[in-house]
């Protein structure tokens, strides 16, 4: 055998002997460690078992609130569109060169305000001519009347023939008719002259103008669009199954049906309360809905034409409705339920029927609860049927544990090891 293999065998033998010796020396310590770990695991299992030596059956702190009775308004909700009360496109009524624009875009204008001016010189000349013709014919009428009166005195003496008297009377009648026609022509010319001043037909807000001064406009030229926004309309639709409810409330209600317009987030009303004005006379067969229109005074101009709003139509008021916080209602596989506080300070799952929302934070319950029942509003995620609870009022918080309570809790979780160790030392 070569020297290399002899050295190799010696090294292997030394390693084997050393490994065996190491296991023999450390076996009791390892066994002790595994025994301690086993005891700790067993103590932990006991502590985790309900009712065990380390069990913690303290009640769960939850917030509870009693049901309350109140008059609850019932609303139907929909998405509505704000529509102007009047929308007028202003066109000239005579043709001519546009001299001036007397409004600013977006400006509020009043009915009768002059918002534009067309060159009036041609129309002024026509009016003056008509007035002059009227004056001329009135003078001729005066002459004819004087002639008739003068000849009526002479006809009795035979100085004037009766045939000539007929001519004089006819001349007077003819001139009277001519003067009446002249007056009509003068009024027509005056109207055309007045049309050179383009006036606002409504109270409203001016939009963006469509023509600039200096352009020749005709009766088909659009100057600007005026929109009346005070008051203003909101048009919305409801499903046809609500038609009977709305019609009965609209026709038989003592008061007008109130309508509230909210912003897109349902956060706050956009204007003072409006009132339902019209229920449409037909149902849309395509969508199965019917239209309604409400009117708002809109004093602050918060509602704007074309704006989308959330609409709440108040159809009736439930007297003595049962109201609870909305956060108390939980949804389960069998429907809505609440955790109801029992006399023994435990909770039970109580199915409920929600009839509608009351404001932003409460709901009305039609079935499942009675007046005075207490329901859990916070802390439901820690509960199950039969859980023991510590009922707190809204705004209350559970008291912080004291040092002695913390020591007792540690004593229970430790499985009494501290006491056992002290007893062992005394023995």
Account of the protein in words:
There is one protein chain. The protein has 427 residues and is of the alpha+beta class. It folds into 4 domains: 3-57 and 403-426, no CATH class; 60-73 and 321-392, Beta Barrel (conserved putative lor/sdh protein from methanococcus maripaludis s2 fold); 75-83 and 231-318, Efflux pump adaptor protein, beta barrel domain (Elongation Factor Tu (Ef-tu), domain 3); 84-217, Beta Barrel (OB fold (Dihydrolipoamide Acetyltransferase, E2P)), CATH 2.40.50. It has 6 helices and 20 strands. The protein has helices at residues 3-48, 121-155, 162-194, 243-252, 403-413, 417-426, and strands spanning 60-66, 68-90, 96-101, 108-109, 114-118, 197-199, 204-206, 216-217, 224-239, 258-262, 274-284, 289-296, 308-325, 330-332, 335-341, 347-351, 353-358, 362-367, 374-378, 389-392. The strands form 4 sheets. It has a 6-stranded antiparallel beta barrel. Strands 6-5-3-8 form a 4-stranded antiparallel β-sheet, with no helix packed on it. It has a 3-stranded mixed β-sheet with strand order 19-1-20, with no helix packed on it. Strand 11 (274-284) and strand 12 (289-296) form a beta hairpin. Helix 2 (121-155) packs antiparallel against helix 3. The two termini are 66 Å apart.
């Amino acid at each position: 055998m070569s020297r290399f293999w002899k050295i190799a065998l010696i090294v292997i033998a030394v390693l084997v002997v050393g490994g065996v010796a190491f296991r023999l020396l450390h076996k009791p310590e390892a066994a002790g460690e595994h025994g301690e770990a086993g005891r700790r695991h067993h103590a932990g299992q006991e502590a985790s078992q309900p009712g065990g030596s380390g069990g913690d059956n303290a009640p769960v702190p939850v917030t509870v609130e009693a049901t309350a009775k109140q008059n609850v308004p019932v609303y139907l909700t929909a998405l509505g569109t704000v529509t102007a009360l009047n929308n007028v496109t202003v066109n000239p009524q005579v043709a001519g060169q546009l001299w001036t624009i007397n409004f600013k875009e977006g400006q509020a204008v009043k009915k009768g305000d002059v918002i534009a001016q067309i060159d009036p010189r041609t129309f002024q000349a026509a009016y003056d001519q008509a007035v002059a013709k009227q004056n001329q014919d009135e003078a001729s009428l005066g002459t004819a009347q004087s002639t008739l009166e003068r000849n009526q005195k002479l006809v009795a003496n035979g100085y004037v023939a009766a045939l000539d008297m007929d001519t004089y009377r006819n001349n007077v009648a003819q001139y009277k008719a001519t003067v009446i026609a002249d007056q009509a022509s003068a009024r027509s010319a005056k109207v055309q002259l007045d049309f050179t001043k383009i006036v606002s037909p409504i109270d409203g807000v001016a939009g963006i103008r469509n023509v600039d001064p200096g352009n020749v406009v005709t009766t088909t030229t659009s100057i600007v669009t005026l929109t009346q926004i005070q008051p203003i309309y909101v048009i919305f639709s409801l499903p046809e199954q609500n038609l009977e409810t709305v019609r009965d409330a609209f026709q038989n209600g003592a008061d007008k049906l109130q309508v509230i317009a909210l912003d897109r987030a349902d956060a706050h009303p956009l204007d003072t309360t409006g009132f339902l004005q019209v229920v449409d006379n037909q149902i849309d067969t395509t969508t199965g809905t019917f239209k309604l229109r409400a009117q708002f005074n809109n004093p602050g101009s918060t509602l704007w034409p074309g704006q989308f709003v959330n609409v709440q139509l108040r159809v009736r008021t439930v007297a003595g409705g049962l109201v609870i916080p909305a956060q108390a209602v939980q949804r389960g596989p069998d429907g809505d339920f609440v955790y109801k506080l029992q006399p023994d300070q435990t909770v039970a799952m109580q199915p409920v029927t929600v009839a509608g929302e009351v404001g932003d934070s409460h709901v009305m319950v039609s079935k499942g609860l009675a007046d005075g029942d207490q329901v859990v509003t916070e802390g439901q995620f820690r509960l199950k049927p039969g859980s023991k609870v510590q009922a707190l009022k809204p705004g209350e918080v559970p008291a912080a544990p004291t040092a002695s309570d913390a020591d007792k809790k540690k004593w229970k979780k430790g499985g009494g090891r501290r006491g056992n160790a002290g007893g062992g030392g005394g023995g």
